[in-house]
Amino acid sequence: MILALWHAAPVIQLRTVRDEELTADELAELRAFLNAAYDHEFGDEDWRHARGGSHVLGLVGAELVAHAAVVPRNLRSGSRVWRTGYVEAVGVRQDQRGHGHGRTVMLKAAEHLRATYELGALSAGPQNWPFYERLGWLRWTGPTFVEVRGEQRRTAEDDGEVFVLPTPATGEFDRTEPLVCEWRSGDAW
C-alpha cells in the first residue's frame, strides 16, 4: 500500500554549455523557459545578465526543466579581486518544482565554479536564503558597493542578499568587510 503512494521523481540529466555553443533556437527556447519560470517577469536586463558565460541545463527527456547561468564578473574586498563566477537566472519549470531539480542544477553549477573560478557569488532574496545556505553558500554580511567610473557607490538595498561560495582558489576572506562589484545596467548585484 505504501509503495503504491510513492512516486519517483523524474530523472534529470545535466548539460553544461557555454553561451556561444547554443543555437539561436536554443537561446529563444531558454529565454521563453526563464520567462515562464519567473512568472513572466524575466526582463531584457535579466536576460543580458544571464548571458556570456555557461549554462547548466537540467533536462527530463528532451524537456528543459531547470537552469542556472554562471557568468564571469570581478568582485573585490579590500585589496583582493576575485575572478568570480556569478550565478544568474536560476529557475525550475513550475510543474517540476519540488523534485530537487533546482538543487541538482545548483550542485552542478557549484562544481563548475570550484573548477573554473576563484569565487562563486549570487544575489538572493530572503525567501531563498535557506535553499542556498543548505547548499553551502555563505551570506556576505558586510556592506555592498558598486563601482561606477572609478567611484564606489553604496548598494545598501543589497546588503545581506549577496552569497559567496568559496573555491579552492578563494583564499582567506572576511565576510564582514565591504564587497564591491563592477557596474552593469539593471541590478548591480
UniProtKB/TrEMBL annotation:
Its domain of life? Bacteria
> Gene3D superfamilies in the record, alphabetically?
3.40.630.30
Q: Where is the N-acetyltransferase domain?
A: 17-155
Which InterPro entries does the record cross-reference, listed alphabetically?
A: Acyl_CoA_acyltransferase (IPR016181), GNAT_dom (IPR000182)
Indicate what this protein is called per its UniProt record.
Answer: Aminoglycoside 2'-N-acetyltransferase I
List the top taxonomic levels of the source.
Bacteria, Bacillati, Actinomycetota, Actinomycetes, Pseudonocardiales
